[in-house]
From TrEMBL:
GO biological process: tRNA wobble uridine modification
Organism superkingdom: Eukaryota
Gene3D superfamilies: P-loop containing nucleotide triphosphate hydrolases (3.40.50.300)
InterPro entries in alphabetical order: Elp5, P-loop_NTPase
Keyword Cytoplasm annotated: yes
Family in the record: Belongs to the ELP5 family.
Name of protein: Elongator complex protein 5
Alphabetized UniProt keyword annotations: Cytoplasm, Nucleus, tRNA processing
One Pfam short name: Elong_Iki1
Record's subcellular location: Cytoplasm; Nucleus
Pathway assignment: tRNA modification; 5-methoxycarbonylmethyl-2-thiouridine-tRNA biosynthesis
Gene Ontology CC annotations of this record: cytosol; elongator holoenzyme complex; nucleus
Organism of provenance: Lasiosphaeris hirsuta
GO molecular function per UniProt: tRNA binding
Length: 334
């Protein structure tokens, strides 16, 4: 990719992510965040809340698993134990269907866990339609991919399949430290490491630990579906805000811009570059100057056959018999 095209792609991808996080121009009415035990969706959800407060949007937090009201949430709704109809009516009461104010106020609905709604997956399209009642309302919902869900009815899609189909944007979060470890394994052609449930170990699951390499960053894999049906996919790094201050904003960058994920330099160049490529080898693949001269001075046997006895006769094979050879007179002369 040419430098200008690469810079354009980088700018376009970052601007698109900023547009989604800032809830601009109804870019994504339904955003789905997929997380697991190895990496929580918390950093990305906090980024949504921080940007919503900066943009003076109203934050409505719908809780299935959260006990306390988040600090920056304007409305806190306890959803556990309520029917879908009652929950939808309570949410809709905080989201007017008509635009009010200049400019009109936006509404961010945050649903902390969709897994309790998995048994009612056939009713989810109608539920989402009843709470996203205006272009000013955006729903960001989290789904835990490693939490088991009941088996769907016969011929019914899996709840995760249905949710990814309904969502206009899907974010998959993972640990940067784990992504770096997988990258190193690929560079050494060894098996990828596994974490969490995939390790297959018995006992207590150990969560993420501090890693100076990742500096607490989160890998965010974005898949946005445009109205034309074309999907835009890209991977980013969401770094924590400097100092953790409110409103400071987290750092965003492409995963390919990370030093450990940068593509290898193009082949070619001077001799020093070739020597650098051979540093990791256990033996030398190059030739010394003396070995090059000796190779150029070697005269191959078929040269003599062509110049001395091969003129006009098609060439012959010259062979000098040794002491251990047994010549058979009945063999035809070559």
């Amino acid at each position: 990719m040419a430098p200008s095209a690469q810079a354009h792609h980088r700018s376009h991808s970052l601007l698109l992510l900023q547009k989604l996080l800032n809830l601009r121009d109804t870019a994504s009415p339904l955003t789905l965040i997929l997380d697991n035990l190895e990496q929580s969706a918390g950093p990305l959800v906090r980024e949504f809340i921080n940007r919503a407060k900066i943009g003076r949007s109203k934050v409505i937090f719908i809780s299935f698993a959260t006990v306390k009201k988040p600090h920056d949430a304007d409305v806190f709704i306890k959803a556990r134990g309520k029917s879908l109809a009652a929950l939808a009516a309570e949410i809709a009461s905080h989201c007017p269907t008509t635009a009010t104010g200049t400019p009109p106020q936006k509404y961010l609905l945050l649903l902390d866990a969709l897994n309790p709604l998995a048994p009612h997956s056939p009713l989810l399209p109608a539920f989402f339609s009843s709470i996203i009642t205006s272009p000013l309302v955006s729903l960001v919902a989290t789904y835990h991919t490693d939490v088991p869900v009941p088996s769907p009815p016969p011929y019914a899609p899996h709840p995760l399949t249905l949710l990814t189909h309904l969502a206009t944007t899907v974010f998959r979060v993972s640990s940067l430290a784990h992504a770096v470890a997988i990258r190193r394994a690929h560079s050494r052609s060894v098996q990828e490491p596994e974490w969490g449930l995939r390790e297959g170990r018995e006992g207590v699951l150990v969560g993420l630990r501090g890693d100076t390499t990742s500096s607490g960053g989160v890998v965010v894999e974005m898949e946005m579906r445009r109205r034309s049906g074309r999907a835009v996919a890209e991977r980013f790094i969401l770094a924590p805000a400097a100092g953790g201050g409110k409103g400071s904003g987290a750092g965003l960058s492409l995963l390919s811009d990370h030093p450990l994920f940068a593509p290898p330099p193009p082949a070619g160049g001077d001799g020093d570059h070739e020597e650098d490529e051979l540093v990791d080898s256990t033996f030398s693949l190059g030739l010394t100057e003396k070995q090059r001269r000796d190779r150029e001075g070697v005269v191959l046997p078929y040269f003599d056959a062509q110049t001395e006895v091969g003129g006009g006769e098609g060439g012959r094979i010259l062979y000098e018999m040794g002491r251990e050879d047994d010549f058979d007179d009945e063999e035809d002369e070559i």
